[in-house]
Amino acid sequence: MSAKLFKEAIEAILKGDTGRATDIAKQGLDEGLNPLELMDKGFIPGINQVGDQFEAGRLFLPQLVYSANAMEKATEIINAAIPAEQATVAGKVIVGTVEGDVHDIGKTIVVALFKANGFDVVDIGRDAPIERFINEAEKMGAQIIGSSTLLTTTMVVQKQLEQELIQAGLRAKYKTIVGGAPVTQRWADRIGADAYAQDAGDGVKKVKQLLAG
Ligand code: B12
Predict the structure, then answer these.
(1) If you measure from the C-alpha of residue 103 to the centroid of ligand 1, how many angstroms do you get, rounded to a whole number?
(2) Measuring CA to CA, how many Å separate 160 from each of 51, 52, 75, 140, 155?
(3) Whole-number pLDDT of residue 2
(4) What does the pLDDT read at residue 1?
(5) What is the distance in A from the centroid of ligand 1 to the CA of 57?
(6) Is the CB of 110 inside a 6 Å radius of any atom of ligand 1?
(7) Where are the alpha helices (DSSP H) in 141-181?
(8) Does 194 contact ligand 1 (Cβ within 6 A)?
(9) Ligand 1 neighbourhood includes 91 CB (under 6 angstroms)
(10) How many CB atoms lie within 10 A of CB 115?
């Protein structure tokens, strides 16, 4: 009865019911559902509906916070259950949400899926300054720098990251990948990023391509 569970997941996120959301996450995993499917068909549509209602003025910030909290806790449980795959291409990746932006649910899913695919990942968290992306990448010897942004106002930081890398003479050393709800392939092309990914699965595919090329 996975369709019913997906619907219940959407409802739990809409209501901001953390207890219910975590129960559904555990139940889905116990029933043998694919963690990514549970995310993509249940919880993510739930939080997207929350976003739509917030934008339409039908839901207010406190409710958004409750829903986000329920989403974070469910995501934690599901991320921990993503099965590890055999690494086909080894790679070191830095991932973070850019400065000025505290949205990290999507970024955390990306980190979990990258790790599950055998990549060595350093998660520099959210609201991360550009220097942190660069310093951590240098420190770990990363090949890829991934940045996330959910706010249109902070998209420009992804562009500044590209510029800082050029100014530091480091641009050729790294491949960059950008993501986040308002980000598009067009934006990636415009700022000179090496890749764009629309979701975590696409991110894995693109990172593999970057490492192979
Ligand atoms: C949850 C949420 C919050 C939570 C965040 C909690 C957290 N820990 O992340 C809280 C309540 C804190 C919050 C705060 C705010 N929010 Co908010 N929030 C959302 C909401 C509803 C969902 C975001 C989300 O988690 N989506 C689910 C995840 C799974 O999707 P995702 O992030 O897109 O990630 C996927 C892909 O994009 C991709 N991806 C993402 N990053 C990366 C990176 C790489 C490298 C790769 C490869 C891929 C990749 O893979 C991910 C997994 O598939 C969105 C609405 C929406 N539909 O986006 C609004 C939204 C983003 N928020 C919005 C706003 C306005 C705010 C606030 C300014 C509200 C306020 N007045 O204070 C503050 C921002 C504060 C700040 N400085 O950052 C607006 C932004 C509008 C805009 N055009 O900029 C939105 C769009 C809501 C709306 N429709 O108005 N928010």
Answers:
(1) 5
(2) 27, 29, 30, 21, 9
(3) 87
(4) 61
(5) 16
(6) yes
(7) 155-167
(8) no
(9) no
(10) 16
pLDDT of residue 87: 63
121 residue type, one letter? V
Atom of ligand 1 nearest to the CA of 201: 53
Q: Ligand 1 centroid vs 151 CA: distance in angstroms?
A: 7
Residue range 144-159, pLDDT digits in tens: 999 999 999 999 999 9
Structure tokens that stand for 45 in this block = 């549509």
What spatial distance separates the first Cα and last Cα of the chain, rounded to whole Å? 42
d(CA 25, CA 35): 9
Residue type, 125: G
Q: What atom of ligand 1 comes closest to residue 154's alpha carbon?
A: 84
Confidence of residue 84 (pLDDT cuts 50, 70, 90): confident
User: Which residues pair with residue 179 across a beta bridge?
Assistant: 148
